[in-house]
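Input (structure):
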């Protein structure tokens, strides 16, 4: 690669970094930003309560009202390889219902087979909720969903 091409790339990278830094700095004055464990930054509106404990969410015992399902919950798809093998199983998926009703920090807590855990994670990422509240304001709340995969249901 030519030196002039490298210099152009370095200049463009520096310019982009400066633009992103300015945009980030401006966003700090407009909203409160919270980092989640999924390495992304979430900006909350000024009227959203940020939890005081356990990272960026409350446990469901600590909220005034728990999240409720909005519409219907997508059922996990039975993993094809497990169906072919005639295997049943279970999974427990933990997640945080964010103040906007979306799920985040979705992960497998335990599963009898990784495929059941992966299917559960894919389903939970599609779920939408009426968020938990504390003091009348929407807050982030940690939840868990046990799932059973049975060949009679497949």
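Output (sequence):
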């Amino acid at each position: 690669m030519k030196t002039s091409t490298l210099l152009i790339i370095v200049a463009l990278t520096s310019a982009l970094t400066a633009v992103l830094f300015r945009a980030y700095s401006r966003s700090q004055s407009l909203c409160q930003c919270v980092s989640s464990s999924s390495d992304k930054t979430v900006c909350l509106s000024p009227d959203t309560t940020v939890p005081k404990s356990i990272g960026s969410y409350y446990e469901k015992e600590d909220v005034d009202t728990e999240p409720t399902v909005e519409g219907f919950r997508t059922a996990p798809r039975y993993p094809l390889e497990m169906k072919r093998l005639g295997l049943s199983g279970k999974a427990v998926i933990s997640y945080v219902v964010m103040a906007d009703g979306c799920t985040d920090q979705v992960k497998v807590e335990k599963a009898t087979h990784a495929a059941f855990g992966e299917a559960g994670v894919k389903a939970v990422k599609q779920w939408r909720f009426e968020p938990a509240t504390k003091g009348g304001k929407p807050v982030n709340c940690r939840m868990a969903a046990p799932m059973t995969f049975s060949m009679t249901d497949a």
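Notes: Residues 10-54 have pLDDT under 50 and may be disordered. Residues 3-30 form the longest helix (28 residues).
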